[in-house]
Design goal:
The complex is a heterodimer of chains A (461) and B (217).
Chain A: H1 9-18, H2 20-41, H3 47-63, H4 65-78, E1 82-86, H5 89-102, E2 107-110, H6 114-118, H7 121-127, E3 131-134, H8 137-144, H9 161-172, H10 181-198, E4 201-204, E5 208-210, E6 215-220, H11 224-230, E7 234-240, E8 244-245, H12 251-263, E9 270-275, E10 282-288, H13 292-296, H14 312-316, H15 318-323, H16 334-344, H17 361-365, H18 372-385, H19 391-405, H20 407-420, H21 426-429, H22 450-460
Parallel strand pairs in A: 1-10, 2-3, 2-4, 4-7, 5-8, 7-10
Antiparallel strand pairs in A: 5-6, 6-9
Chain B: H1 17-35, H2 55-65, E1 69-73, H3 79-84, H4 87-90, E2 95-97, E3 123-127, E4 130-132, E5 137-141, H5 150-153, E6 156-162, E7 166-167, H6 170-175, E8 183-188, E9 193-194, E10 202-203, E11 210-216
Parallel strand pairs in B: 1-11, 2-3, 3-6, 4-7, 6-11
Antiparallel strand pairs in B: 4-5, 5-8, 9-10
The chains are: A alpha/beta (461), B alpha/beta (217).
Chain lengths: 461, 217
């Protein structure tokens, strides 16, 4: 994916909402997950305390990140793992390929890793003659569809069962027209178990890396990470440097928050703690920066590095739910993605901080207390400051600014507007210049302004 | 700021990447150290963490909720009779047990050298160390388990834990876990599952299609 292909979020969102039924279905599917999260969070009286501790642990971790990474490297090496460092996606991909080549391997099974998506590892390996199979069911579905994931926890949340049925009919020979999820899952199970058994190398992401022990934790519901790295002898684990936590026991905070926030489960089915290679095996851990150390330097945005990738902010976001993950055109979509993407490339992703109503729901559900909506607002300021706004928005903001600074002007324009707007012919109000009139009717104009009503009320007393 | 799209250029030479690494390490660490925020204390982990009046009942009810089954037995010897009542066990062709008192089973782990040979195990009965009441997770390790894949590859899984080894919450659980030597440990909570097709929950994704926990005592 090159940056030139990236279209503005509103353009992509317009395509998504054009199919009204589907947009509504998508919205409901995610709201269902958000509701499960609420129910699960409510079972723990200490929920807010857990969020507070998680936030403090991450704050501490960032303040000692270099030391902790070195401690992790030391301990992981002691356990027999090899630790690699990559500044860029290209370096990361090069390291992965060199390990694969060293073993003369061509078949890799991979469990879900947003970092390898960020690095576009799959197409790179395929260009180099390596077959990569994504083994998380959702990720495998989007891989077969040749699409990127649209959600970080539920990669195929935008796909309907009929489409999965067609896809599996084509690739797995399931019955034409079959849409029953257990039937489809069973067909995938059969094929993917063959892939696990035939793989030469297993690749995983990392949910948490523990400095104190040199080990790391990978969480799945399907068991695909464990199958992928317990049959082949070689395990490659790829992680962003922000995945670090200081102590093993810190997991008692994070694992209580992760599953509940992500999908409303008390814990993921499998929370696997890897410490060193299997007997007779090999373990490689790749630590990737790719702009993270730069974000660390930003007072305003560094807390975005607390993120544990649970996806709760996406599930709750009214814009994400109604515009779909692909409208963001980033590996991580939704509120957190709209902070991370402009940190890397503000020009390309300048519309993302505006894909937000500033309702603040993301900040309320975030298990590590990232002040998401505040950061999104800060990004808007930053984008305006860097003159990355389109001319139309700059102009209208300047005019609005002038109006709001002058009470008399605001009063006059308000009065004119209330009088004029209902009299205008429809085409002058509902046209391409008025985004607020798309898909909805403007409310009827009140007869009097609030100020007038307030003044009258005071008089009457 | 760095741009994340450098991957489209084919990598020059894979062999050179290992040489690149030491330099990258220093660059990354230097960049982090330049950007470190001011220090912030590490919180302690004691807290008002939830405790249940009856942790065993809580464990059993959460396990049912996440698709597993909990069976309480007075002694290990009573497990055999319970197993016979489980259809997946009664109809199993290949069974494996790592609990000495349970059997007879027809596959012996130690006689298998290649873990791939475990792909047709229908029912495995394996040891768990302890359970967690708040989320019905059972802690398992590869200590004494020659091929850890068996926990994930068998068609049906039963774990055996002493009933007095149920802790209330994960904070208590981590009091019991340590990693000094290289080894593997995992919390397993219920059977393998997925909801990746339209959020419709399906039990038995790639791993075990069922999970039974025997609480002994």
């Amino acid at each position: 994916m090159t940056t030139t292909k990236v279209r503005k979020h509103p353009v992509n969102a317009a395509v998504f909402v054009a199919d009204n039924d589907r947009a509504h279905w998508h919205d409901q599917a995610l709201w269902f997950v958000r509701s499960k999260r609420d129910k699960m969070a409510a079972t723990l009286p200490e929920w807010e305390e857990l969020r507070q501790r998680a936030s403090e642990i991450k704050l501490h971790t960032l303040s000692r990140l270099a030391d902790l990474l070195e401690e992790f490297e030391r301990n992981a090496t002691k356990l027999g793992a090899t630790v690699h460092w990559a500044r860029t996606p290209a370096e990361h991909n090069g390291i992965v390929l060199s390990i694969i080549k060293k073993h003369n391997a061509t078949k890799v099974v991979k469990s879900k890793s947003m970092l390898t998506e960020e690095c576009h590892l799959n197409p790179f390996l395929e260009r180099n003659g390596v077959t990569v199979t994504d083994t998380d069911l959702g990720e495998w579905i989007v891989q077969l569809l040749e699409e990127p994931p649209s959600h970080i926890v539920m990669p195929a949340i935008h796909i309907k069962r009929e489409e999965v049925g067609d896809l599996f009919h084509k690739h797995l020979g399931t019955d034409a027209g079959a849409t029953d999820p257990p039937y489809l899952v069973n067909a995938a199970r059969k094929r993917l178990r063959e892939e696990f058994l035939g793989a030469e190398i297993g690749l995983t992401g990392v949910n948490f890396a523990i400095a104190e022990t040199g080990g790391f934790v990978v969480c799945t519901n399907e068991g695909n990470a464990d199958l992928g790295v317990s049959l082949p002898k070689v395990h490659i684990a790829c992680m962003g440097i922000e995945k670090m936590i200081p102590r093993l026991k810190d997991l008692s905070i994070f694992l209580r928050l992760l599953g509940r926030s992500a999908t409303g489960q008390p814990i993921t089915t499998y929370s696997s703690h890897f410490h060193g290679p299997m007997p007779g095996g090999e373990m490689h851990i790749i630590l990737v920066d790719n702009g993270r150390s730069d974000i660390l330097g930003s007072e305003e945005f560094r807390r975005s590095l607390h993120c544990i990738r649970c996806g709760a902010c996406m599930n709750t976001c009214p814009v994400y739910r109604r515009s779909g993950g692909h409208s963001y055109q980033t590996t991580v979509p939704g509120p957190i993605g709209s902070i991370l993407a402009p940190s890397r490339d503000a020009k390309t992703y300048s519309t993302l901080p505006y894909a937000c109503s500033l309702c603040g729901s993301c900040s309320d559900v975030c298990p590590v207390k990232i002040d998401l909506h505040t950061q999104l607002l800060s990004w808007r300021k930053e984008i305006a400051h860097r003159k990355l706004l389109p001319w139309s928005k700059r102009m209208s903001m300047t005019l609005a600014g002038m109006m709001f600074q002058r009470t008399w002007l605001f009063t006059i324009i308000g009065r004119w507007g209330r009088w004029l707007l209902p009299k205008l012919p429809r085409f002058m109000v509902y046209n391409r210049f008025n985004d607020w009139g798309k898909q909805r009717e403007l409310p009827p104009m009140p007869k009097r302004s609030f100020r007038e009503m307030y003044a009258e009320r005071k008089r009457d007393r | 700021m760095r741009n994340g799209n450098a991957t489209d250029s084919p990598i020059h030479q894979h062999g050179s990447c290992f040489e690149m690494t030491p330099m990258s390490r220093e660059t990354i660490l230097r960049s982090i150290r330049q950007h470190l925020p001011q220090s912030s204390p590490l919180p302690d982990l004691t807290g008002p963490w939830i405790r249940y009046p009856d942790p065993i009942a809580q464990f059993a009810s959460v396990l049912e909720m996440i698709g597993g089954t909990c069976i309480r037995v007075p002694t290990v010897a009573d497990i055999a009779a319970q197993l016979e009542r489980i259809p997946a066990y009664a109809s199993a062709t290949k069974t494996l047990s790592l609990i000495p008192e349970i059997g007879p089973t027809n596959v012996a782990m130690d006689s298998i050298d290649d873990p791939h040979q475990l792909d047709d195990i229908d029912f495995a009965i394996l040891p768990g160390h302890f359970g967690v009441a708040e989320n019905a997770a059972v802690w398992v390790t590869d200590t004494g388990v020659k091929h850890r894949v068996v926990y994930f590859l068998c068609q049906h899984l039963a774990l055996v834990i002493p009933a007095d080894q149920i802790v209330h919450n994960l904070a208590e659980a981590y009091e019991r876990i340590e990693f000094r030597d290289p080894h593997f440990g995992a919390f397993i909570a219920g059977p393998s599952k997925t909801a990746d097709i339209e959020q419709s929950l399906v039990i038995g994704a790639h791993g075990p299609r069922s999970m039974t926990v025997f609480l002994v005592g």
